[in-house]
Each structure stands twice: as structure tokens, then as C-alpha cells.
Amino acid sequence: MFRRISSLARTGLSAMAAACVALTGPVAEAAPSSKGNLPIVRDAEIEQLVTEYAAPLLKAAGLSRSGIEIILVNSSDFNAFVSGSRIFVNTGAILATETPGQLQGVLAHEMGHLAGGHQLRLRERIENAKVLTAVTSLLGLGVAAAGAATGSREAAQAGTGIMAGGTGLAARDLMAYKRGEEMTADRAALTYLERAGLSGRGLVDSFRNLDRQSFFSRSSGRNYLSSHPMPNDRAAAIEDAARRSPYWSKPDDPRLVERHQLARAKIAAYTGSPGDAKRLFSRDPRSIAAFYGDAIETHLAGSSSSALKKVDALIAARPQNPWFAELKGEILLEAGRGAEAAKAYRTATKLDRSNSSLLRAEIGQALVVSGDPAVLPEAIDLIEEALRRDPSNANAYRFLAMAYGRKGDIGRAELATAEQYWNTGRLTDARIFAARAAQKLAPSTPAGRRARDIVSTPRP
């Protein structure tokens, strides 16, 4: 289910190294911080949907064998960016896209950055900008110093102007280069969409929608100060080519449309204010997505009995949907009904075509909450299997620690806690718990070696 992680320790990100952004203007841009911390969201339903959107586009871009990973960022901004082999997609971008095609256009654009090697070239450009800034600063400093030595106020001011001018020139050069990259990625996106047999209408519509919302599209027109062309300009630049595609009028798959709306409902309910999901579907209040959002909001409001009735109605309407069963599991789990929650999660796992490790871990988590000592070995096996497939599932480590603690295996409980902290970027806490675990675990065992690895591994 929808889980927030405070940071992403796996990425050595920097704001300048990320070739971002898909569609946003300069204000909405949410590049990663210099410390690499990002509010990450883990959710099997949305991850599966976005992965399905991306698969044909990765193949069309020649990236299907590149190990590209898609990561969800808990941010309301309409934004996506790439860093390394990862595509980061804000939940706000999913919420704001009204159709699958619009989000596929965003993904195709980011793949244009990846396939075009824009990250590497941007780094080179940044290094060149640093050199230009350094040279002009030294030159300006020399002129200013000479002016001060001779008592020439004009020369000192000229030196200061040279330093400022060099910095401004480097910044404008970077921004102009970045705008060119964005246009190149837009054109590449159209190519990938057509190769995949998808319409480019969604990409054009995204620009039009963004233009209507963009304050900067109504500003004084000093576009050279932005690292991105204005949305309306981008739409105009690609619309003719998009219309020439034989797939321009191809509609979105109705099944994907429903799943897209369900994902939007979930995001609105979990990240917005009470009533946001209802307002999102005010024009279609009887839709399955509207009912889904309402069930989640009811659950979050603390009314488990009412939420269970609503989710049971959803399950009756869509018995093959695994995510409704997963929601039922979450409601039961948070109500302390672990055994029933495990049953619901097992149903979700059987229905899930993606074989999500998150769902398997949730079965184990529910078994831990059940309080039955007899099921602890199965719970541990399920959670550890899930973590082998997906070591970044921080929530699972917490329940693994609980399971080992209840068995009396304090060393492994402390190791699980250390690994949770390690995978969420809290490295000091990770080393503290790993050191405790290392004192209790035999050095020759895999668990003992993992504990010592955490203690001895240098900070990334």
C-alpha cells in the first residue's frame, strides 16, 4: 500500500547532475537536493501501472536492456526527471495527467534524455561553465585589484562588472543549452511513441494543460532566464509532427484509463486533504475511482468498519482487482486484525500479475501483527524473500525486526533495524544498530557479515 520513505539513500544525486525536468517550468521544478534526499513513495499498484506504461517506450527507445528503474517521488509538483539509470516521477505528475497517454508522453520525454546521453553532456557543460566563471572572475579580480592599487574607482567597478558578467554569461549559456535539450527530448518522445504504436496527443495535451496553469507563461516573456521552453511553445513545436503520426487518433485502452483514474484517486486520498479525492471526481461521482478514493479517505479518517463496507463493495464490483484486496488488508492490519489482514493480502498476491514483492512482504507483516507465535517462521521467510528481491522496502525491515524480537533473536532484530536505517539514509543510526548486532551474531554467519559490512562501509 501507499508508503512514504523519508529519503532515498541509494542515489548519489545532485541537482546539477540530474537531467530534469519533463514538462515543468522553472518554479515547479523539484530537482533532488545536494544531499540526495528525496521523499520516496512505495506502492505496488502505481509502480506496476507506470512500469507497464514505460515498457513499450523503453523498447522503442532501445533502453529495454538498460536496467532502467522508475521511482515515485512524493511531491505535488508536476515533474519528472532522470538521474543515472533512474526515472523519477512525482506523484503530482500522475495526479495531474488525466489520461494514460499524457503520462506516457512524460515518460517518453524522459527516455529522450536518457537515450540522448543528456546527463553526461550536461555535466560537461557545467564543468565548462565553471571554467568560464573562474577565468572571468580571476580577470575581473585582477582589474579590480589594479584599480584599487591605482586609486581608479572606474577600474575597480569595471573589475566587479567583469566578474558578475562572467557568472551571468555562464548561467545563460547553461540555460540556453538546457532548453535545447528539452526540445530534443520532446522530438525523441514523439519518435518513441510512434514506434510503440501510441498517440502523441497526450504529450501535446500535457503541454497545453501545463500552459493553462503556468504563471510563467503569462509573464514578461524573458524565456532566456528559464531552463525550459514555455509549455505552449513546446506544444506548438511538436503538434504538427504528432498529428502526422498514424496513431494520433488512437484512443487509450479503456482498461488502462480505469487503472489510471484509480491511481489518481489513491494519490489524492493519501497525499491530499480530506475530500480531495471526492473533488477530483466531482464530474463523475459514481465512477469506480471516486468510490476507491472515498474508501481510502474513510479508512484514513479512522472509520475501519465503514471503510471495510466500502472496500467490500469495490471487491464485489471488481473481484479480479488485487489492489482492492490489498486495501482491505491494510484496513484490517491497522485495526489490529492481523490474521484477517494476512488472508486479504494472500488474495491480493494471487490476483497480482506483477508478482510484487511488496505484497508478499505485507503478508508477512500481517502475520507478525496477528500475535500468533506459530506463524512467525513463515512471516520471517516471506519478509526476507521479499527483501532479497527488493532491499529498499524499508517498512518490511521494521516488521522483520519485530518478528525476530518476538522470537527472542535480538541480534537479528537489531540487524533488521540497522538495514532499515541504512536503506532510508540514516547511516549513523544504521551503524549503531549494526554494531550492537555484530556483538551478538557469529562473525562467520551471513547475518554477522552483513552487520560488520554496515559498520565498516564508508559513507556514500
Automatic annotation (TrEMBL):
Keyword Lyase attached: no
Signal sequence, renumbered to the chain: 1-30
Pfam families named among the record's database cross-references: Peptidase_M48 (PF01435)
Xref: SUPFAM superfamilies: TPR-like (SSF48452)
Domain of life assignment: Bacteria
Keyword field contains Iron-sulfur: no
Cofactor: Zn(2+)
Gene Ontology MF annotations: metal ion binding; metalloendopeptidase activity
GO CC, alphabetical: membrane
GO terms of biological process kind: proteolysis involved in protein catabolic process
Keywords: Hydrolase, Metal-binding, Metalloprotease, Protease, Signal, Zinc
Domain Peptidase M48 span(s) in chain numbering: 42-240
Xref: PANTHER family: METALLOENDOPEPTIDASE OMA1, METALLOENDOPEPTIDASE OMA1, MITOCHONDRIAL
Protein name: Putative Zn-dependent protease, contains TPR repeats
Organism: Fulvimarina manganoxydans
